[in-house]
């Protein structure tokens, strides 16, 4: 599976978000409370964060996220944990990985995946991906996007499909919903998707746990506060600076 989160709010240090919270991404990767498959998420992790605007109230036209990925388990990554104390951002996408069976354990296969302003994560797996579904899904990706894929991860193919739909004019929410429909037309799976362009965040709960509070979505609550909402399964979540909404898929 995986554990992932998306944050859009007042600038915070990556350390506070990923390592410092009582049940931070680091803690839930090592000791998940809601994970269906696997006891830990040891196959590396990654984070994408967006630059702060140069002036109050301004945002870059097409923010390109910075990114860090490694095959080191997040709980063993003391070097980045220390570095993260000096990195501040108001938009963050991060994920700790439990690789799907048969996937190669390389940095290129770890979320977040990034293209232009977009960052993306999948918490889940496409059923039967190594048994013919990979070829079926890759055949639906445009040649240009297909040439950019660098790993054998099912999540990177789904990201390419999402980007194709956005290129075709879909909103981010419509693009995620369309890709869910494409995958479930040919197979099953757990398909929690997470997408940001640095201005907003869109997420899907489809088969795995997802919680939301104000301007954050995460596989599990980061603390024991009682204002976390468990997002209903088969729901789409849209996060803006004003908060979040969720609707059925």
CATH top level label: Alpha Beta
Q: What's the CATH architecture name? A: 4-Layer Sandwich
Number of domain modules: 1
What's the total helix number? 7
Radius of gyration: 17 Å
So what's the overall shape? globular
- SSE string, helices as H and strands as E: EHHEEHEEEHHHHEEEEEEE
Report what the structure shows.
- There is one protein chain.
- With 249 residues, the chain is an alpha+beta fold.
- It has a single domain, classed as Glutamine Phosphoribosylpyrophosphate, subunit 1, domain 1.
- Helices cover 24% and strands 31% of the residues.
- It contains seven helices and 13 strands.
- Helix 6 crosses helix 7.
- The longest helix is centred in the C-terminal third of the chain and has 15 residues.
- It is globular, with a radius of gyration of 17 Å.
Descriptive labels:
single chain, about 250 residues, alpha+beta, Glutamine Phosphoribosylpyrophosphate, subunit 1, domain 1, seven-stranded antiparallel sheet, six-stranded antiparallel sheet, 7 helices, about 30% strand, globular
């Amino acid at each position: 599976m995986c554990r992932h989160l998306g944050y859009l709010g007042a600038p915070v240090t990556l350390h506070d978000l990923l390592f410092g919270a009582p049940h931070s991404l680091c803690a839930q990767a090592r000791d998940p409370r809601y994970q269906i498959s696997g006891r830990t998420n040891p196959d590396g992790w990654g984070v994408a964060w967006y630059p702060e605007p140069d002036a109050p109230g301004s945002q870059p036209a097409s923010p390109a996220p910075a990114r860090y990925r490694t095959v080191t388990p997040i709980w063993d990554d003391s070097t980045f944990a220390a570095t993260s104390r000096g990195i501040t951002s108001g938009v963050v996408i991060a994920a700790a990985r439990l690789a799907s069976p048969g996937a190669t354990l390389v940095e290129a296969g770890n979320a977040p995946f990034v293209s232009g302003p977009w960052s993306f994560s999948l918490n889940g797996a496409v059923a039967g991906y190594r048994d013919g579904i990979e070829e079926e899904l890759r055949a639906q990706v445009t040649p240009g996007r297909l040439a950019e894929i660098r790993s054998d991860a099912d999540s990177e193919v789904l990201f390419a499909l999402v980007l194709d739909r956005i290129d075709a004019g879909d909103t981010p929410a419509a693009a995620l919903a369309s890709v869910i429909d494409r995958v479930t037309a040919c197979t099953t799976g757990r398909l929690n998707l997470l997408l940001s362009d640095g201005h907003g965040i869109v997420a899907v709960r489809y088969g795995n746990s997802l919680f939301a509070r104000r301007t954050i979505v995460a596989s599990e609550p980061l603390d024991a506060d009682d204002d976390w909402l468990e997002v209903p399964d088969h729901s789409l979540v849209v996060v803006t600076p004003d908060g979040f909404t969720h609707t059925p898929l």
